[in-house]
From TrEMBL:
Cofactor remark from the record: Binds 1 hybrid [4Fe-2O-2S] cluster. Binds 1 [4Fe-4S] cluster.
Keywords assigned: 4Fe-4S, Cytoplasm, Iron, Iron-sulfur, Metal-binding, Oxidoreductase
Modified residues (Cysteine persulfide): C409
Native organism: Psychrilyobacter piezotolerans
Lineage top rank: taxon: Bacteria
Protein name: Hydroxylamine reductase
Main localization category: cytoplasm
Length: 555
């Protein structure tokens, strides 16, 4: 076995990638990512339990926060394939660890837990040493399969949390308690004294901070760009050359929009960047002209026909085919990376210079049109609350029988056709609430509306699943119910990577029960951990479309 990774839904045989990643991750990259997580844990050991006041007075505090969140984010599925960049992060982390250790000696301080842990002393100075060390610190370093499962479930939740935290910080919104929890949780995954029950508690607590981080990001996005509003987004193309921006970071798209003003270059969103069109402060840019293509996994074909440069602000990158026409035209920023692609860094004021991409775009042909028409979205919490009377009436009169939360991720497995068929076959008196790239399975089906309420209400990105939770809580209040589970809402969620893990844990924290998760249950859940989730939360997989619809409709 040259690697072991089972963090995503497409893991080999549903149990683990051991030779190479289905995602295209090479064993060396996977191993370096394991070492990076271990390095992050070493810093967490030193930082755990340091109070808020001490943090505030430390000049390095923000640097350490950023290091931890960026390290976790880098290892999310399809975010970073660049060995050199990941190895440099490990080296940087170890230097940071030594700096903090020196400070500890000066102050006579000791770590709260795991004072003599190997993570605090190991050294690696070459790529070869990193590879060798990584083999003893990866997922399989934990022998007991239930402990391993709970530790990894926590780590994957933290990866999603870190991604959302980093987007918030990029917009100037911070919450030190979230970072403190991440540190505690990271250390807990190395602490052999914790029992299975304590680790189950940690998983549930991760969900609590999942809600907090999504609320923080919601506040950051809406604080900076206004509340999303009902918007028709063009899916065709215009005649100017364009830049395609993918990923989730709204601070990047606003900077790109500013820098392309008046240049004759149009901006198109891709995959999870689609919801940028819904924000008043972003849609005001006339040269934000449309969304090009579909979910992440179709990029190898769609980037060929886009013709212009592409900027990845986060996952999901698919390694290009040899000789792809867009080679040399793809750029990354933040935690995203790919060998040979230029990574754009921010300056000391947090600004990024996208001029290289803009100059390149000017030399490219306009995108080739692959679709035409529009799609509708922008149904985050405030827009839905504005329609609340209409929605409540429709429920009361029986015009809407049931809501289906179908948020989450898309992926390349054939079995995901289930979601297209499911959406298509749902009775016409039902409404789909969605967020994340899962929507591309059904957002172009023209499912119609119910008295002016579209049957697919897209709240935004995966993190905007928070909006769907707020909508459920609002409906609970309007209908004066005691429990969100009494609402006519069913949850049929598609997952792929670790942001979906934090969304799921957040929903569990909010008390949502009977979530169906597909297309397959996570390979990282041991049978005993699945049992805990089934018994306490009614988590289930999916079956056939017809049977599932009957089940959900209570027929
Ligand atoms: Fe395999 Fe998924 Fe890990 Fe990639 S991220 S190596 S596909 S489990
Ligand atoms: Fe999609 Fe990668 Fe998860 Fe943000 S872009 S939801 S898969």
């Amino acid at each position: 076995m040259s690697m072991f990774c089972y963090q995503c839904q497409e893991t080999a045989k549903g149990t683990g990638c051991t030779i190479a990643g289905v995602c295209g991750k090479k064993p060396e990259t996977s191993n370096l990512q394991d070492l990076l997580i271990y390095t992050a844990k070493s810093i967490a050991i030193l930082r755990e339990g340091i109070d808020l006041e001490t943090r505030k007075s430390c000049d390095h505090s923000e640097k350490i926060d950023y290091y931890l969140t960026n390290a976790l984010f880098t290892t999310i599925t399809n975010a970073n394939f660049d060995d050199e960049a990941i190895a440099a992060q490990v080296t940087e982390g170890l230097a940071l660890r030594e700096e903090i250790k020196a400070k500890f000696i000066e102050l006579g301080r000791t770590p709260k837990r795991l004072k003599n842990h190997d993570a605090l002393t190991f050294t690696v100075t070459s790529m070869k040493e990193m590879q060798a060390k990584s083999l003893s610190v990866g997922v399989l370093a934990t022998e007991n399969e239930d402990i391993r499962s709970l530790r990894e479930l926590t780590i994957y939740g933290l990866k999603g949390m870190a991604a959302y935290y980093e987007h918030s910080v990029n917009l100037g919104y911070k919450n030190q308690e979230i970072v403190m929890f991440m540190e505690k949780a990271l250390v807990s995954t190395l602490d052999d004294t914790l029992s299975v029950d304590e680790l189950v508690g940690l998983v549930l607590e991760t969900g609590k901070y999942g809600v907090d981080v999504m609320a923080l990001l919601d506040g950051a996005n809406t604080g900076r760009f206004g509340n999303p509003e009902l918007t028709e987004v063009n899916i065709g193309t215009k005649s100017n050359p364009g830049i395609l921006i993918s990923g989730h970071d709204l601070n990047d798209i606003v900077q790109l929009l500013e820098q392309t003003k008046g240049t004759g270059v149009d901006i198109y969103t891709h995959s999870e960047m689609l919801p940028a069109h819904y924000y008043p402060e972003l849609k005001k840019y006339d040269h934000l002209v449309g969304n090009y293509g579909n979910a992440w996994w179709k990029q190898k074909e769609e980037f060929e026909s886009f013709n212009g440069p592409i900027l990845f602000t986060t996952n999901c990158i698919v390694p290009p085919k040899a000789g792809a026409s867009y080679e040399g035209k793809v750029f990354t920023t933040n935690a995203a990376g790919y060998p040979g692609w230029v990574s754009i860094k921010e300056d000391e004021n947090g600004n990024k210079d996208f001029s290289e991409i803009i100059e390149m775009a000017k030399t490219c042909e306009a995108p080739t049109q692959i679709e035409e028409g529009t799609i509708v979205g922008g149904f985050a919490h405030e827009q839905v609350f504005a329609l609340a009377d209409k929605v409540v009436d429709a429920v009361k009169t029986g015009a809407i029988k049931k809501f289906f939360v179908m948020a989450g991720c898309d992926g390349r497995m054939k079995s995901r056709d289930y979601y297209t068929e499911f959406a298509d076959k749902l009775p016409k008196d039902t409404v789909i609430l969605t967020a994340g790239c899962a929507k591309y399975r059904y957002n172009k089906l023209n499912l119609g509306d119910i008295g002016g309420i579209p049957r697919v209400l897209d709240a935004g990105q995966c993190n905007d699943s928070y909006s769907l939770a707020l909508i459920a809580l609002k409906l609970k209040e309007v209908f004066q119910l005691n429990d969100v589970n009494e609402l006519p809402i069913a949850y049929n969620i598609a997952w792929y990577e670790q942001k979906a893990v934090i969304v799921l844990l957040a929903l569990l924290h909010l008390g949502v029960k009977n979530i169906h998760l597909g297309p397959t249950l996570p390979g990282f859940l041991s049978p005993a951990v699945v049992n805990v989730l089934v018994e306490n939360f009614g988590i289930a997989g999916i079956g056939s479309v017809d049977e599932d619809i009957k089940l959900f409709m209570g027929e």
